[in-house]
Amino acid sequence: MKIAVLVKQVPDPNAIRFDPRLGDLVPGTPQATNEYDLYAVEAALRMKEQLGGTEVVVASVGTARETLNRCLAIGADRAVAIEGPGLPGDSLATARVLAAWLQREAPDLIWAGQETSDAGTGNVGPQVAALLGIPLVSNVVGWEYRDGVLTLEREIEDGHQFQQVQPPALLCALSALDEPRLPTLRGIMEARRKPSERLSPADLGLTEEDLAPVVSWGGLFLEEEKAAGIVLRDVDPDQAVEQLVAFLQEHRLI
Amino acid sequence: MAQERVLVVVETVGSEARPASLELFGAGRPLADRLGGELVGLVIGSGVQGVAELAGRLGADRVLLADDPALGEPVAARAARAVEAAIAASDPALILLPATTLGRDVAPLLAARYGAAHLVNCLRIEVDDETVRVTRPVYQDKLLTTVRAPRSQRVFVTVRSGAFAVPEAQPGRQVPIQSLAVSLTDADRAVVVTQLVEKPRGMTNLENAPIVVVGGRGLGSAENFRLVEELAAALDGAVGCTRAVSDLGWRPHYEQIGQTGKNVRPKLYLGVGVSGAVQHTVGMRGSDTIVVINRDPNAPLVKMADFAIVGDLFEIVPRLTKRLRELRGTA
């Protein structure tokens, strides 16, 4: 079995700071691997451990050297970086690039994170599934693979839905899956010897027209901050409760 | 512009509309008026004639009804085929879907098929002759941005729950309801739903509850969550928890609010022993009023709060519950 995992390097969500003059993040924000993607990699690695004879290939569109190295260090077999001017573009362009690569690789299964922590469109996974014409199962929080059938536990508004599908399929991971493993020193050493490929859109037969954006993004801005609220400190508990009750009554909340 | 209609996709649960999809009529009406075209409703489900009638009372000019047992359970490929049929039948310029788990699967699936834009999880939507322009949250709700798509082709928009109000129903308003045949391909049937483990009753409406009481790690144990349950009962509110709490197994995951859980926008959010990590606050930032009881004056949630008590929750919560019960005369 061959499993492809789609990963992205994003500004570290715990380190982002906003520069209102630039209307953008402060330049030089540290990068990190998108969290949901690590859960997707972990799921692929566990499938490999369960099934044996499985190759796990990770791929990313845009600059992602640290992310791909990390995936190799925790057990992926091969990494593919697809880079080129304007990549990653909008989600549809990114999906087209990935779909072109996946058509060449023809994996049995594709894992992706549910969405990224930067733009967070959650578009790429479903769009790749649509372009490849394979089933999509999103919001995955559990899986089982038996006798060629995947049973996937999904978290949706109404509860936990179980879906069955036969590969090939594209699965989008949430972080209720198994905790991603950390790289070991040995893993990091081994990663250096693993195959790593760099491709351009032209290598995949894509033209500029294929990658033309369908949306354009404006700058970033902040929602207006709310006025500072009331903070009671060192107030006797009974009094504090009375004041809170008065506040709730005044705001017609009780 | 030849394409001037707005199509609104109404998702259903059983025989009812999912509340977030009814808000689309609030979002869609001004857009259809601006484009000078019809507001067309599409109702997808099984046994949902009543929802089609409701769509008319909420302002749809006509309704397409995709009523089929195969559409009774939320599966992206099937719902996508229904929307595709509705697009063929109504030729809309703009297609609005709720930003639900289903909507956020269906919109990008179709956007890829049509080579069109999908503007995601939008808070505001404006149209002019050339472009659709939306405001949407990015960086896990920490920041906002605007995104534009040209109107030279269809545009898919998913609308964030709570961003628009459901319009007031116009009693007696009746509009044409046309039943829509949806032919599913074998590929559309590739995914089979084998089971739905529903949330226990009373827990299902955390996302719609006007009052939500949330417990965090500060409670110290699963047993101490009794304090949160009692407080929620005294307020007639729903119980929620943070990721730390559900990870520790103190509470079920379906009560989790935040990045990997639910989004809530209640009138009153009351956090008990919740420090307010970003992973949690992204799921509750939209709350109207935020009240916090926490020991740490520097906790991020204390800074976000409209009313915060810095102190020992074990001293404050039982007193608050008792006082609320007295006020309701149920002491």
List the helices and strands and how they pair.
The complex is a heterodimer of chains A (254) and B (331).
Chain A: E1 2-6, E2 9-11, E3 18-19, E4 24-25, E5 31-33, H1 35-51, E6 55-61, H2 65-73, E7 78-82, H3 91-105, E8 109-113, H4 124-132, E9 136-146, E10 149-156, E11 159-165, E12 169-173, H5 185-191, E13 196-199, E14 216-221, E15 230-233, H6 237-250
Parallel strand pairs in A: 1-6, 1-8, 6-7, 7-13, 8-12, 9-12
Antiparallel strand pairs in A: 2-5, 3-4, 9-10, 10-11
Chain B: E1 5-13, E2 16-17, H1 19-35, E3 39-45, H2 49-57, E4 62-67, H3 76-90, E5 92-98, H4 103-114, E6 117-122, E7 124-127, E8 131-138, E9 143-150, E10 155-159, E11 177-179, E12 192-198, E13 211-215, H5 225-235, E14 238-241, H6 243-247, E15 268-272, H7 278-281, E16 289-294, H8 300-304, E17 307-310, H9 313-328
Parallel strand pairs in B: 1-3, 1-5, 3-4, 4-11, 5-10, 6-10, 13-14, 13-15, 15-16, 16-17
Antiparallel strand pairs in B: 1-2, 7-8, 8-9
Helix pairs in contact in B: 3-4, 5-9
**Number of continuous helical runs of chain A:** 6
In CATH terms, the superfamily of chain A is HUPs
Low-confidence stretches of chain A: none
Order of helices and strands of chain B: EEHEHEHEHEEEEEEEEHEHEHEHEH
- How would you characterize the largest beta sheet of chain A? 9 strands, mixed
Q: How would the global form of chain A be characterised?
A: globular
Which architecture name of chain A does CATH use?
Answer: 3-Layer(aba) Sandwich
What percent of residues of chain A are in strands?
Answer: 25-35%
CATH architecture of the largest domain in chain B: 3-Layer(aba) Sandwich
Q: Radius of gyration of chain A from the CA trace? A: 22 Å
Q: Quick one: how many beta strands of chain B? A: 17
Number of domains of chain A: 1
Our count of helices of chain B gives 9
State the fourth-level CATH superfamily of the largest domain in chain B.
HUPs
CATH topology of the largest domain in chain B: Rossmann fold
In which order are the strands of the major sheet of chain A placed?
A: 11-10-9-12-8-1-6-7-13
Kindly state the percentage of residues in helix of chain A: 25-40%
Could you list the spans of chain B in which at least 5 consecutive residues all have pLDDT below 50?
none
Q: How much helix is in the residues of chain B?
A: 25-40%
C-alpha Rg of chain B (nearest Å): 22 Å
